[in-house]
Design a protein that fits this description.
Helices cover about 35% and strands about 20% of the residues. The chain has nine helices and nine strands. The protein has a five-stranded mixed sheet, with no helix packed on it. The chain is an alpha/beta fold.
Length: about 240
């Protein structure tokens, strides 16, 4: 089985289309979304519609949960800009779109691959390459698998932990140049995702980066009435 795993789309329809084209060329059996689908980006409804049409399993990211629990974002971010942007996106989503987000799962196992957003116990935790092993044990909360896959940090990662592989797919819609711990990021003009192949006793992990056109990314923001429109345009 070949699994194409995407995470942290953040309303970036242009990046989603580019990744789906690349994944189709590479070949896969199962597409899975690991969350953070609609917020902070210019095309939330387009991305939600595309995922619904694809009928792929979706994991509940923290930003997805912000869409169904309005107060939760205030416990996560102290940035007024982020909070206003999230609130504006929620206000513009339809009841059908919110119902689709409510259908997302917190974790899922597919073909021996354990899937989550931040960590198995929380979609708000950051699991990094440099996270100490004893801290990783706490984050995994007793879960074991040949491969464990999440997103959330917007930083691609592959690390071995007690014989298991822990993968971060990176961010499809908003990849960061470096880990920012909640601070303002530099967003890179490419899209990130992963293809994981399970073949009998073999596991292979392909962390992929797809170049995007900066001008097209800026044009996608045109007409987006959201507090993040200006800062995001300036980044590119």
């Amino acid at each position: 089985m070949r699994h194409a795993l995407i995470s942290d789309l953040h309303g970036n329809a242009l990046a989603l289309d580019a990744v789906l084209r690349d994944a189709a060329r590479a070949g896969y059996d199962q597409l899975v979304c690991l969350g953070d689908v609609a917020t902070l980006g210019p095309r939330p409804s387009e991305v939600l519609a595309r995922l619904a049409d694809l009928r792929c399993p979706c994991i509940l990211g923290n930003h997805d949960e912000f869409m169904i629990d309005a107060d939760l974002v205030r416990s996560y971010s102290e940035s007024p800009l982020i909070v206003r942007s999230v609130d504006e996106t929620r206000a513009r989503l339809s009841e059908d779109e919110l119902a689709f987000i409510r259908s997302f799962e917190r974790t899922r196992t597919i073909d021996g691959v354990f899937l989550f957003h931040g960590t198995p116990r929380s979609n708000m935790e950051d699991l990094l390459a440099e996270t100490p092993a004893d801290r990783v044990d706490e984050m995994l909360d007793g879960h074991q698998a040949r491969v464990l896959v999440g997103g959330h940090t917007h930083i691609q990662m592959l690390r071995q932990h007690h014989g298991m592989l822990i993968v971060n797919t990176g961010s499809l819609g908003m990849p960061f140049r470096e880990y920012v711990a909640g601070g303002p990021p530099v967003i890179l003009p490419h899209a990130e995702y992963a293809i994981i192949e399970i073949d009998a006793g073999k596991v292979s992990v392909d962390l992929r980066k797809i170049s995007l056109d900066s001008r097209a990314l800026v044009n996608q923001i045109d007409g987006w009435d959201n507090p993040l429109a200006g800062p995001l345009r300036a980044n590119f």
